[in-house]
Automatic annotation (TrEMBL):
Catalytic reaction(s) noted: a fatty acyl-[ACP] + phosphate = an acyl phosphate + holo-[ACP]
Subunit and partners: Homodimer. Probably interacts with PlsY.
Name of this chain's protein: Phosphate acyltransferase
Lineage of producing organism: Bacteria, Bacillati, Bacillota, Bacilli, Bacillales
Cell compartments where the protein resides: Cytoplasm
Domain of life of the source: Bacteria
GO biological process assignments: fatty acid biosynthetic process; phospholipid biosynthetic process
Length: 328
């Protein structure tokens, strides 16, 4: 299998992307890793290049502040666009980028292409849960406005992802809402509810945001606007919590000693809430496998994103979703 990495995307590019790709190439000899980006900039971090790591030069970069559609259309030689083109032309099987989310979504739609039968691809990151298993949530930002039929497609794709990539039999699928009763919510969720009941999935009904981290379902379905607010709220709360803990444990010698004793447990807690452990969020509904890594991803996050892509490819995720949508 061939996995292409947008080496110039993200806050720590190209260093973290190159280092993550190197770790992955050394660990998985059966996988060809392709780094796309400025060859000169990448060269500083490529002193020992494994045989299964390839470099493809791209002269342009899509920046965080670029307007997505214009950037994708005008910067034909941008690393992200070149990577997407490699997917479309069959030169790679999956791509990973920590770059501009809007531009990656646009690349997915305009360059890679939508899957037949899917109206709106969805961004599907993992939300941490207290049991450590995590919850796949979609859509968390690809589409700000959704129709009930879109949520129905998200539910089916999310269920297949958790089954194929995470090995969960009959994943529990919930609909994000303001109450658990079937009649609750706005027009979107009221109309989406019966559509999810029709699907060949394990639909467990409405889920309130306060219960999300308790692991009440394996897949959480929502529109991109609500989902993105939920994700940012969880990220912000986790960050604030660790800042408060650090402040409290630094107050005196006694609290510093307590912190030293609790360090293994604190590290475990941080790992449970750390997005880097999950690697990235797939853009489900495209004709090829595209994974969005967090903008501040380090080498470990990139490596985990590659691991995630490998598992999806091994389990023929894209083909499984396509067959289910087309009724084959």
């Amino acid at each position: 299998m061939r996995i292409v990495v947008d080496a110039m995307g993200g806050d720590n590019a190209p260093k973290s992307n190159v280092e993550g790709a190197l770790i992955a190439a050394q660990e998985w000899k059966d996988t060809e890793i392709i780094l796309v980006g400025d060859e000169a900039q990448m060269g500083a971090f490529l002193k020992d290049k494994p045989a299964n790591l390839k470099v493809v030069h791209a002269s342009e970069v899509i920046e965080a502040e670029d307007e997505p559609v214009k950037a994708v259309r005008r910067k034909k030689d941008a690393s992200m666009v070149v990577a997407g083109r490699m997917i479309r032309e069959g030169e790679a099987d999956a791509m990973i980028s920590a770059g501009n989310t809007g531009a990656l979504m646009t690349t997915g739609l305009l360059v890679v292409g939508r899957m037949k039968g899917i109206e709106r691809p969805a961004l599907a990151p993992m939300i941490p849960t207290l049991d450590g298993k995590g919850m796949l949530a979609l859509d968390l930002g690809a589409n700000m406005d959704s129709k009930p039929e879109h949520l129905q497609q998200y539910a089916l794709m999310g269920s297949l992802y958790r089954e194929k990539v995470h090995g969960i039999a009959k994943p529990r699928v919930g609909l994000l809402n303001v109450g658990t009763e079937p009649g609750k919510g706005n027009e979107l969720t009221k109309h989406a509810y019966p559509l999810l009941e029709e699907l060949p999935i394990h639909f467990v009904g409405n889920v309130e945001s306060r219960d999300v981290m308790n692991g009440v379902c394996d897949v959480l379905v929502c529109d991109g606007f609500s989902g993105n607010i939920l994700l940012k709220s969880i990220e912000g709360t986790a960050g604030a919590l660790f800042s408060l803990l650090k402040e409290q444990f630094s107050k005196s010698l006694k609290t510093k000693m307590a912190a030293a004793l609790m360090m293994p447990e604190l590290r475990s807690l941080k790992s449970t809430l750390d997005y880097k452990e999950h690697g990235g969020a797939p853009l489900l509904g495209l004709s090829g496998l595209v994974v969005k890594s967090h903008g501040s991803s380090d080498a470990n996050a990139i490596k985990n994103g590659i691991r995630q892509a490998r598992t999806a490819l091994q389990n023929r995720l894209v083909e499984s979703i396509s067959n289910e949508i087309s009724g084959k």
